[in-house]
Structures
1.
Amino acid sequence: VSRVAFAVHGGAGAMRQLRAAPDEEAALRRAIAACLDEGRAALAAGASALDVVERAVVRLEDDPLFNAGHGSALTIDGHVEMDATIVDGRGRATGAVACVSRLANPVAAARLVMQRTPHVLLVAEAAERFALAHGARAVDPASLVTEARRRELLRRREPGSGDAAGTVGAVARDRDGHLAAATSTGGLTGQLRGRVGDSAVVGAGTWADDATCAVSGTGHGEAFLRCALAHEVDACLRLRGMALGAACDAALARVAELGSSGGCIAVDREGTTALRFNSAGMLRGWIDEAGRARVAIYAGE
Ligand code: ASP
């Protein structure tokens, strides 16, 4: 039987805040574990990698603890503007949306862009109108705003505060050997209106190609864009023959060269999984070699 693989992340960054809130940390770990259990069961039952990554990201978008969908980070003037991308390793079919506010699940809208248009990326009101016309779940933008994100924005307006944590992503290999990746985010706390990050740009925050690997990243989006982070992992495998973990490290080293940090999760065509970061931590989960669900945040876990 061909090896299935599945990994998810719940964002890099703001680990200092997390250490100060043990209850929240435990809740985040439980949410990731539940996501892994569901994905593992679906893959074992023969679900496609594409369906599994979309479902995992929808689930995390619906959870207000994560910076995606409900619970998204707020722009400088207190609005929600979300980005998401999904990539199918079969032929690198891709869909993405950017700067959307009225959709409960941006990743599902991204999939509609992939499957129902000849395009890759739709933005703002036009993306919302398109997705709603094709059955996407509508939401009042105000209902996506949580008290925790409001407080985070207020802290951000004071000097010395950090960026948002909690962006979400998933990568999978199904039993037919197909790969897929998806990423969804509310962006960075206090970002300007109209700012689009790596999570909406294929090759930066998300990548999948059955011939190489599937990647979902999290971190300072501007640096990920400037490094084409997810595509860099692919390039290290394809052109330099590197192993998956080393390829992720090499790609993240380029982000560090720009003075930024973050992490990524990846699976390759053999079903190897890598979860790497150069930030203080990255909330992450994966199915290990023995088929166990594993969840970690800090280095060395
Ligand atoms: N990469 C995301 C962005 O810049 C944020 C994150 O991963 O936390 O929009």
2.
Amino acid sequence: MALKRENGIILALDVDTREKALEITREAAEFVDAIKVGYPLVLNTDLSIIGELKKFQKPIIADFKVADIPIVGQRICEAAKGAGADFVIVHGFVGEDVVKACSNASKIFVVAEMSHPGALDFMAKDAESIVEIARKHAFGIVAPATRPERIRELRAASGADLKIISPGVKAQGASVGDAIRAGADFEIIGRGIYGAREPKKAAEEFSKSARSAY
Ligand code: OMP
């Protein structure tokens, strides 16, 4: 399923049970453009949760942050795609051979620079080189909403073709809309939605703020 920008936000569904995942998605789906499923949900349920979430008619991004040798990375991406994922998130620091192998199996987003403070220890200095690799093989990159100035720089490095999805909004400190104003296409929000007292209302408000930023 294609990823289209209508709300500007992607739901990070890092909850621990199938019931909670379905409940949150039922509430938030109309206000998000994709659902990102990662290890917390898949390891606490199983891979079939991806197929189950397809009924909400939103693209599914499997956030497996693949960081392995090429053949294993490719098999992880094949498994995610086989389960119904439309995109898989892959690390870029492992090198072009891994990114290329993964891109043979599915559409991918490449993590260029992460949102947490520790990303400055190692990743940030190589982010522009990772973007060069992503330009050849990926649908988009992941760049930090917590550092909008880096989104601007990584947008300049990536050109207009790569989609930028950006985590770090609300719970990690960034404000909704800042990453989009800096050049991101979508903002990823997890706890700000699934941890809200009223997830539906939160998603609706975030979507309104994100839309006003583009
Ligand atoms: P919240 O902080 O709860 O909004 O969740 C952020 C989501 O984005 C989580 O699913 C993280 O795994 C993911 N994420 C980051 O927070 N930082 C990154 O640098 C990259 C990701 C990611 O690849 O999605």
3.
Amino acid sequence: MRRALVPQIPAQIGQKVLLPEGEARHLQQVLRLRNGEAIEILDGQGRRAPAKLVFQDRGALAETTGEPTTDARLLSQPIHLYMAILKGEAMEWVVEKAVELGVRDLTPVESEFCVVRVEKKGAESFQERWQKIADQALKQCGRLDRLTVRPVQSFEGALLAHDKINSGRLNETLYWTDETLAQTGEKEAHLAAQTTPTESSAILVGPEGGFSQTERQRLLELTGSEKKAIRRVHLGAPILRAETAALFGVSLLVGHGKR
Ligand code: SAM
């Protein structure tokens, strides 16, 4: 099914909505759809509706042919991925898979060993690009609510942001995936043994070279703090590539939510 994101789905059947320029261009020039062809429109907030395309001089419209509906099985889960910024395609791959798996929010984190430095091009242009990739993945897999790519944060900024969210929403544990913990062989420290089905959760994954000593020290301090908002976990003995760790960690959290 060809899908397009629209700002709002009209309330009644037969009403039209103007497609954003990029969506219209994609449907017409890349997918080569014609007047009258069936598409599905998504509002990115949990609703979809069947529609047909109407190309006009002033742009492309979608005319709804059915009632808007939702489907709980196609909604995200309260999972927040704090992902150290990876090189080019690896980061884009993580964004795409996070959408498919049902992650609700993704915060790109600039940590000491990140190879990519976002200041050169500007953090906002990276954020925009990742959001675009997330939206494309949404349309491809049919998920109904958008993954929000949040602004790039420094390592400390990410911890603060989590703290803020956590103080407003109780029980949002941040799982720090630490490859060195796996070497202790502690089975109960595996992420699979840590989560409970109802929690909303966050997961932190380091860059290709891992977290620096200073960053690790900071995380260790926080895991020991009384608030216990951060839990140190591992993903098994093999050292996974950062993108694999993200995918595996998120899958474990999603599995607990039984999507
Ligand atoms: N520090 C390592 C090195 O350079 O030898 C590797 C870092 S690993 C490629 C990147 C990130 O993936 C880590 O910071 C961690 O968050 C996560 N990770 C990879 N394997 C893991 C494991 N077995 N358990 C927990 N986290 C893991």
